[in-house]
Amino acid sequence: MARNHRTSCGRCCNAFYLMMKRNLLLVLLIIGAVIGFAIGAITNDPVNRITDPEKKATVIMLIAFPGELFMNMLKMIVLPLIVATLITAISIVSPDVTGRIGRRTVIYYLTTLVLAAILGLILVLTIRPGSSGNHDAHENVESVKYRNLDSLLDMLRGCFPSNLIGAAISQKKTRYVTVPASFKTYNVTSDTIHLEPGEKITAVHTNGTVNITTIRKEIHAGSDTVPAGMQSTGGMNIIGLIVFSILFGIVLGRLREKARPLIEFFTALNEAIMMMVGFMMWFSPIGVCSLVAARISGMDDILGSMGKVGLFMVTDLCGLLIHSLIVLPLVYFVVTRKNPYVFMKGLGDALMTAFSIASSAATLPTTIRCVEENNNVDPRISRFVLPLGATLNMDGLAIDRVVVALFVAQLNDISLSPGRIVVVCLLAIAVSIGTAGIPGVGSPVMIIIVLEAVNLPLRDVGIILAVIWLLDHFITTVNVLGDAMGSGIVEHLSRDDLKFKTGDDEAIVSKPPRKRDDVVRLSYFSNV
Fold it and tell me: Where would you find the membrane-spanning parts of this chain (predicted)?
């Protein structure tokens, strides 16, 4: 009996050791966040007692210094990351090898991504998790004086930069000049005066027996928002680089064999960047600890700020639940006229696996088995749609990135114009498409891309990273659900095409799921 007990304990210890080893980075990140919170809470009172503004700012700066270095490391690879990942992801789906089935798949994925981004936008604007409750007192002055029309036009101009090198270091914005009001002044001697709109009496005097009235009429009003060309502002034109990368990837895909050397180059570059990201992520526990400690140490109201972070998580989870339980089933029902929840019931194993390991790439074999065995999806569809979904379809991530960006804006009392909100949604969709091989879609890299594109501060990234690891499990589950339901929808739309076994169909059948060991090793960050 004692021997059996020792054997059982040994197995439990071994299993625990393997689990800790497999999720070492996750464990270190949680420890770093907890230590950072403790340091911030301990130093909050002493820091806020410092009356000298220079000394107080210096103390907070020193606490945040390791985190600043970590953020700089990540910002350093944003440019090659955008270009390499998007070109690699898009170039593999552009050829018309799969014909109509491929087009239906891509249209479905893009549709659900757009719906996910809109859902996240509606929720974060409705719940306002980062709002202080006084929406007018602290609004960003620049955003108030920035016309909505110019915001939209600047976004469209940014999509097509005239200089790619310049787009990597700056972005263009409408420049305003102040034009004073123009007036016309004249005298009237009539005793009865009828003032027209824009006229007012400025003086009245008598010259003998005649009353002379001086009237000033406004010809045009003054304005401090008169467009006068463009000006360069700090920050990378991320949306322009994304548009170029997508178009370049499409062209490479259509060139096929002629572009093979270029595709292989960007694939190798993508793998090299991924290896760098994986290496940098081992510094994330120190960086997160420093950023969280610095942010909390300077807070006036810790409990209030933590309440906002909790409300951010609630907003994110509400979006994920609504998308998975209402939006995706509704899309499935509208297209197939079948009960979506019966289809979802057959995905139980895949969804549990996705939630447990937070990696849809590692869940791919289980997902394929569930849709083929439990839901009778044709293998020619499932073995094409699902691996492609692991590359392109991240509905949960699109929701999360929109919520994160607007939460940061609300947290810092920054009012975003409609044009900048549109940019946030488009970037959330774009980074969702381009983050397939990144061992850290929940990592600060993608958050930095979205925040920098709309000039939002990065000082709150540490607080978000402290909780994003938990949301990653829910995000991955939604991603897997969207992929699986997409296979059912595409099969329904492709019934006639599947009656004939063509050469293209053979290509679909023979395409094996891609193995992504680098993603599995850092599974907690891999919502791909």
Answer: 76-94, 106-127, 234-252, 273-297, 309-335, 421-451, 463-482
- Residue-wise pLDDT for 415-473, tens only, equals 887 878 888 888 888 877 756 544 444 456 778 888 887 788 888 888 888 788 788 88
Please say whether the beta carbons of 294 and 64 come within 8 A: yes
Phi and psi at 203, nearest 5°, equal -160, 150
Helix axes 360-369, 348-357, angle to 10 degrees: 170
Residue 522: predicted pLDDT: 36
Task: Indicate if the alpha-carbon torsion angle 190, 194, 197, 203 is positive or negative.
Answer: positive
Which amino acid makes up residue 235? G
**Cβ neighbours of residue 147 under 8 Å, at least 6 residues apart?**
174, 225
- List the one residue out of 339, 291, 156, 335 whose CA is nearest residue 230: 156
CA–CA separation, 526 and 520 (whole Å):
7
Distance CA 89, CA 85 (A): 6
Q: 350 burial class (0-12, 13-18, 19+ CB within 10 angstroms)?
A: buried
User: Which of 478, 512, 456 minimizes the C-alpha distance to 322?
Assistant: 478
- The token pair at 482 is 């969207």
For residues 364 and 96, what is the distance between their CA atoms, to the nearest angstrom? Answer: 24
Point out the residues of the chain with pLDDT beneath 70.
1-8, 16-17, 19-22, 93-99, 132-148, 183, 186-215, 217-222, 224, 391, 434-444, 498-528
Residues pairing with 179 in the sheet? 223
- Nearest in space to 188 (alpha carbons), one of 161, 210, 166, 220: 210
Note the pLDDT tens digit of each residue in 496-522: 776 654 444 444 443 444 433 333 333
User: Could you tell me which of 273, 203, 225, 300 has the C-alpha nearest to residue 440?
Assistant: 273
pTM above 0.85, yes or no: no
